[in-house]
Design goal:
about 160 residues; Aminopeptidase; globular
Length: about 160
């Protein structure tokens, strides 16, 4: 398995992979809309030879500035539970920190994402359109994070 930034030649193959992983079209459409609106900040794929087996992206939040949303994370159904998703989350989270983003938010299983530094408690005081108990954050810049406006505004595609 090889993890790398997504390239334009991957773009047509990503929505079908995302749809297969989720078993529905919504998340595949989300990826397409985020791309069309220029909202994607980071995007990685996992490949096995030439086969696309995993994908993850982070989009820019409209508010607070300097923050990202991790979604969606997708692994082909035949390849799930083999560490591919974990490898993708680690890679994209490390890249976000290296690029100087303030924080990355995720809506998902707190136990799963907690392994990668995403915590529910620091996200609790943010207004969000999504369930608080499943909203977690990985903070890269503590001083900056403390001064952020406390409302999460996601890109229109969400």
């Amino acid at each position: 398995m090889f993890v790398r930034p997504a390239s334009p030649r991957d773009y047509p193959r990503i929505p079908p992979l995302v749809e297969a992983a989720f078993g529905r079209h919504d998340e595949g459409l989300l990826v397409q809309e985020l791309r069309e609106h220029g909202d994607i900040a980071l995007e990685y794929v996992a490949t096995d030879r030439e086969e696309l087996i995993g994908h993850v992206l982070m989009s820019r939040l409209l508010s607070p500035k300097g923050c990202l949303a991790l979604a969606p994370l997708s692994v082909h159904p035949d390849r799930q539970r083999k560490g591919i998703g974990s490898t993708l989350v680690r890679a994209i989270t490390e890249a976000a920190e290296e690029q100087g983003w303030t924080a990355a938010f995720v809506l998902g299983n707190p136990h799963y994402y907690g392994r990668f530094g995403y915590e529910v408690e620091p996200a609790d005081d943010f207004d969000t359109p999504f369930a608080h108990e499943f909203t977690a954050v990985c903070v890269f810049d503590e001083p900056e994070f403390g001064s952020l406006p406390r409302e999460l505004i996601y890109p229109r595609a969400f």
